[in-house]
Amino acid sequence: MGTTTPPRTLAEALRARGDESLAGLLRARPDLLSPVPNDITQLATRAGTRASVVRALEHLDRFALQTAEALAVAPDPAPYDTLLALLTGDGQDDGEGRDDAGAAITAALPDALATLREQALVWGEDARLHLVRTARELLAPSPQHPSPTGLGPTVSEATAGMSPGRLQEILTAAGLPATYDPVSAVTALAGLFTDRTRMAELLDTAPVEALSVLDRLVWGPPYGEVTPNPTPPVQWLRDRGLLLPVSTRTVVLPREAALHLRAGRAHRVPEPVAPVLVAAAERDPQAVDRAAAGQGFMALSTVEDLLKLWNNGGPAILRAGGLSVRELKRAAGALDVSEPVAAFWIELAYAAGLLASDGETDERYAPTPASDEWLDLPAQDRWTHLATAWLAATRTAGLIGGQDAKGRALSALGPDLDRSAAPEVRHRVLALFASLPPGTAPDPQTLLARLRWERPLRSTAPGGPTAPGDASDLRSRIALWTVNDAELLGITGRGALSSQARALLDEGPDAAAARLAPLIPEPLDHVLLQADLTAVAPGPLERPLAEMLSVLADVESKGGATVYRFTPGSVRRALDAGRAATDLHAFLATHSRTPVPQPLSYLIDDVARRHGHLRIGAASAYVRCDDEAVLNEILADKRSATLRLRRLAPTVLAAQADPGSLLDGLREMGYAPAAESAEGDVLITRAGARRTPPRTPPVPVPEGPPVPDATLLAAAVRAVRAGDSAARAVHKDAPDTAGAGGGSLPRTTPAETLATVQAAVMTGSAVWIGYVNAEGAASQRVIAPVKVEGGFVTAYDHTADEVRTYPLHRITGVAELADEQTT
């Protein structure tokens, strides 16, 4: 019933928290759960480790971080008023000519401090605020790691090791009474620098050049180099302790003096309020949705073209992994996009599980079996599949073309493209888009400013966190890539977030597909044939029609309408795939809304008449033809010299080239040869014959431990509480009958152990036991026995917070708990 004692350690502060507050800590810092701490003391120890503190600091917003930085240069512990003064200043003019943001800081500080307390970076009451020691070490100033505030060490830290005689010289020059006690001398000098009146009088006597030196150091870095014979202004500052020596050539402006010159502020520009996201343009939401849907449909078309491009086996994989620069250029040319955009589509198809390596000896990339399933889906479902894969992917296509840490080029589909921060940045960028009214496009610069305010730190090994301060940091680059990629993919339209993307973020893929479906045109079952040997598809085509037309004709142009051109080569390609001329005529007549032009019919008949007239098989290779005149014509053609043909019979030529090269050579000469099998049958080449074995999409590389769900958090809090209760339980001393000389575990004979446990079952009381598991690890536990039989005791284990069964022979001893239990 007495007054609450202030916590003396972080563990005590955590122990005083409620279950909901502990769950909030574990939710904000999930790395503390790996594995679940045994008790509060272990939780506090883990929360103070360097790696965990760095990770926690990286997830602070700008003002919460500035609050922690201010505490790092404040006395430990620091009262709330001292912290507020470091952020707002003392109200005096510091020469910056700015209006004070004190009201905004005063309003924002309680929330920032609550965030630091929730994440166990700060503990203690407002009268005694403690920044955890590891955070202070990371954020406090030192010559090797300057403080983000730009402040140097205190007078006490800077004068450590200075001779008493030198201290007396400084006091005399500064007009202070002499004292031969070093501690009193340091206190007097620090008191001078913190007294605004006396400090102002001292600076009034300083040379103008000396004030200029202070102006260069006041906002950091506070260190400067001096020559063995410093200039008179620098010497004046050194004589009065305004510059204190760090080494023979380095001096530092002490923290107390810098704070006077800064009017008491730890930061030059406190940022208590997040930057406002400015709208660059406001558009009709329906126009945005239509534009995004159109771009999304183009995205589907591009990925389909990529799959067709590599349908019969894609490019070979480099020895180090990934695509060569030449293959990327080839893919970009085939897709009619730039190389960075082609790299984005390739990486997206890979992340979605549509492309993978085939695993053969001559390893190549090819479509996966999942790509066929994807192609069978409705357009809206195909789009949500791509968008969902993009949101979760850690592979970052924007890095392609750059270099890794060892100076090696980063290639498409190659290693070292995973950036664990990418999914979080993408979701945050789209969340900021979604925070604006529908149809509003944000200004990219204010978007970056907002992201930097929310996450100002990034890791640098081994020195810890640093603030990048420009657009060159990785998070800013990922944000800019996200804006561009979202427009390519149809997440945004005309710079604004589409309603289907909002549905994807808020409700899931099914809701997004339902929102997108009315905006995608229905696939058509017809084309318009024209007399110039072209066919116009006025919209998207049904898949069977599109696949057959892509074999029979070449795509000439894309857009709202796709133009296909029929050529002798494209018709021969359809005949090679096993189609007869009658099949082609019937196909065109069925799917054309216009009559089949006569030139196209003539083209098909002419190519079909010559197709297969020459037959090529494997000898090394041979050419067979019933018309001797055709073979004579080939032999007489100078272009056939490279094939090294020789007549074996009136209707057969032999070649030293392989069948594939012979086919290509004769086709370049204008003939239409067909390959044949050993039995003399025409070999049919079918598109899409090559697929990889079943492949799973690449697994994203997590940035850290996943955020635990409510069930896991509740169980973890119960386990920590139970372990803490067991560790702090007060027990009666057990007799050391085993002769162990008194150890940490209770020691009793088997008979005493059995009797004590049976008594606890009858009375329903808890006891303290020592236990050795099957691996030989010893531990102590607080249990409430329920049943004893067959050499086993069944009890509720307060440490594990569950009912367990223990073999009696593994219990080293048992002791009763003291009557006066503490909690």
Verbal overview:
This protein is α+β, with helices and mostly antiparallel strands. Helix content is 44%, strand content 13%. The chain has 33 helices and 27 strands. A 5-stranded mixed sheet has the order 20-21-19-18-22, covered by helices on one side. A hairpin with a 2-residue loop joins strand 20 and strand 21 (652-655). Helix 10 runs parallel beside helix 11 and helix 22 packs across helix 23. The radius of gyration is 39 Å and the shape is extended.
Brief summary:
With 823 residues, this protein is α+β, with helices and mostly antiparallel strands. The protein has 33 helices and 27 strands. Helix 22 packs across helix 23.
How would you summarize the topology of this molecule?
Layout (H helix, E strand, L loop, with lengths): L9 H6 L3 H10 L11 H8 L2 H9 L3 H12 L6 H9 L13 H17 L3 E2 L6 E2 L1 H7 L15 H4 L5 H10 L8 H13 L1 H9 L3 H10 L5 E3 L6 H8 L4 E2 L4 E3 L2 H7 L17 E4 L2 H25 L15 H11 L3 H13 L3 E3 L7 E3 L1 H7 L3 H14 L29 H14 L4 E3 L1 H11 L3 E3 L3 E3 L7 H16 L2 E2 L2 E2 L1 H8 L2 H8 L11 E3 L3 E4 L5 H10 L1 E4 L4 E4 L2 H9 L4 H11 L6 H13 L4 E3 L3 E4 L3 H9 L8 E5 L2 E4 L3 H10 L5 E2 L34 H18 L22 H14 L3 E6 L5 E12 L2 E6 L4 E6 L3 E6 L7
Parallel strand pairs: 18-22
Antiparallel strand pairs: 1-2, 3-5, 4-5, 6-9, 7-8, 10-11, 12-13, 14-15, 15-17, 16-17, 18-19, 19-21, 20-21, 23-24, 23-27, 24-25, 25-26
Helix pairs in contact: 2-32, 5-7, 5-8, 10-11, 13-14, 17-18, 20-25, 21-23, 22-23, 24-25, 27-29
